[in-house]
């Protein structure tokens, strides 16, 4: 009997390049000023929102803590966020952002203290996954709520959040997490991503604490890589 | 274009977080499992860069920090394409690189290795891929250097590579190694990657055809980012 190998018609996929740690000298490439020298006309990632962005100006700061409870002093964090109206600066997103709003930034920690921080605007809520327009999934979901009785939660807006990506020596593949805002309790309670976290007490690891300092709003977000209070990280 | 999902990351070809032979990973690796997240607009979008963000010389590490002359070392060209898992080019994406000099010394205030700094070498560069996903750098081949892991560990010659792609979920930092380097098989960082083929894909291949005779030798290094699903269940085929 001849066996037909359906894979012969399948597209030939490549494999993703494997990750490697950013190592101890990540600053040379991605923040050379911090490494101690000036080379580029413009270092990228220092201005996330730009001067024209609407919304509340905020400062976000924190420290990354390792499994020993020590601050990680050679970390690099990138942030990706929507503007105050919940729009990302990206061609696939309907709507426009303010001139100069990139929504992306990168920061490094202070070499002595491990503290990091950046200034931006508080993002607005963004839409969760789109509802499927047609096809099997849609019909199944309409007539068969999932095992928790939920209908189709894909319409739920996501609570305001920052998407964070953390690399450093000792981190073999960048860690993705999200920062939510303490003063959005209702939106957080309904957030479809926070609700994916089965352990309710772990959700709190993603919520930044709000305070005021010199008339400015500051959110504190400490990231614990390991151990007690370990921050939730995502496979996105 | 409607946002569509990216293929899930195949974590078996990436290093796990905890790799005890690479000692720093022990205290810096999460103990709980990652929470899997189907891509929303937060993950399927990402920053966009343009030629206003960088200078044309930024991809020439032989000239971009030259003070009194050219840096010392083996002049090389590193070139290749940024593709996705569907073998489609990833155009206009930012590629950033950083490396040690020919003696294995980084221009970084935290690097105290006794090999000297090269006054004409900064060790970082960046470029945007063209419409075909193609990129190139000119640089000095980096030297191996020692690091405090086991008593006598030496990193193979390598260039750190950072790539953005089109979406935050494609964000990748990796390292480029050089074909034939005998330090590759004994490096604990290389061997955080559990898959021999995956290590081979991080090894740039000597490319005599792309070199400049009597000037520079060339290495070829293609980078693959995550691919994207066709949106065939959303009433339109956007095609792989």
UniProtKB/TrEMBL annotation, chain A:
Gene3D superfamilies linked to this entry: Aromatic compound dioxygenase (2.60.130.10)
Top-level taxon: Bacteria
UniProt keyword Oxidoreductase present: yes
GO MF term (any one): ferric iron binding
Domain Intradiol ring-cleavage dioxygenases residue range list: 60-88
UniProt keyword annotation of Oxidoreductase present: yes
Entry-linked InterPro entries: Intradiol_dOase_C, Intradiol_dOase_core, Intradiol_RC_Dioxygenase, Protocat_dOase_a
Alphabetical list of Pfam families matching this protein: Dioxygenase_C
Protein family (similarity comment): Belongs to the intradiol ring-cleavage dioxygenase family.
Full protein name: Protocatechuate 3,4-dioxygenase subunit alpha
Species assigned in the record: Paracoccus salipaludis
Lineage: Bacteria, Pseudomonadati, Pseudomonadota, Alphaproteobacteria, Rhodobacterales
TrEMBL record, chain B:
Cross-referenced Pfam families: Dioxygenase_C, PCDO_beta_N
GO molecular function, one term: ferric iron binding
InterPro entries registered for this protein in UniProt: Intradiol_dOase_C, Intradiol_dOase_core, Intradiol_RC_Dioxygenase, PCDO_beta_N, Protocat_dOase_b
Annotated Protocatechuate 3,4-dioxygenase beta subunit N-terminal domain residues: 7-38
Record protein name field: Protocatechuate 3,4-dioxygenase subunit beta
Region spans: Disordered: 1-21
Family label: Belongs to the intradiol ring-cleavage dioxygenase family.
Gene3D superfamilies membership: Aromatic compound dioxygenase
Keywords in alphabetical order: Dioxygenase, Oxidoreductase
Example GO biological process: 3,4-dihydroxybenzoate catabolic process
Domain called Intradiol ring-cleavage dioxygenases: residue spans: 45-227
Source superkingdom: Bacteria
